[in-house]
Specification:
By secondary structure, this protein is mainly α. The chain is built from five helices and no strands.
Length: 126
C-alpha cells in the first residue's frame, strides 16, 4: 500500500489538476468499475447463461433445418423434372386424357366402381 500511495503522491505532485479534472477521473473510474461489476454479475447469472445458450442452440437448429428444407425442395424439383423428362410423351398424354375422361364421366365411373366393388365383395363371401 505504501508504494501505491507514494506513486499517487508523485502523480499529484508532478501535475496540477483542477477539481473538475479530479471529478472527471473519479466519474470515469466509477463508470469502469460499474462496467466491471456488471460483467461479473452477468458471468455469475447461470439462469441467463442457460437461456442464452438455449437461444443460440435454437438459432443454430433453425438455420440447419432451413438449409435442409431448401435442399430437400431443390432435390424434389430435380426429381420431378427428371421424371417428367424420362416419362414418354404418350404416357403423359394418356394420363391427361384419362383424367379428362374421369372428370367428364364421373357418374358412370362411380356406378362402374360400385359394380366392381360389389363383385369383389361377392366373390370373397363365396
Amino acid at each position: 500500500m505504501d508504494q501505491d500511495e507514494s506513486k499517487a503522491g508523485e502523480k499529484l505532485a508532478g501535475e496540477e489538476r483542477t477539481p473538475e479534472q479530479v471529478r472527471e477521473e473519479i466519474e470515469q473510474t466509477r463508470s469502469e468499475l460499474g462496467d466491471t461489476v456488471a460483467a461479473l454479475a452477468e458471468k455469475t447469472d447461470v439462469k441467463a447463461q442457460a437461456k442464452n445458450a438455449a437461444e443460440e442452440a435454437k438459432q443454430t437448429v433453425s438455420g440447419k433445418v432451413a438449409g435442409i428444407k431448401g435442399s430437400v425442395t431443390d432435390k424434389k424439383d430435380e426429381f420431378i423434372s427428371s421424371a417428367q423428362e424420362a416419362t414418354p410423351k404418350s404416357a403423359q398424354d394418356a394420363g391427361q386424357r384419362a383424367l379428362a375422361f374421369a372428370k367428364a364421366n364421373s357418374l358412370p365411373l362411380a356406378v362402374l366402381g360400385a359394380l366392381v366393388l360389389g363383385v369383389v365383395i361377392g366373390r370373397r363371401k363365396a
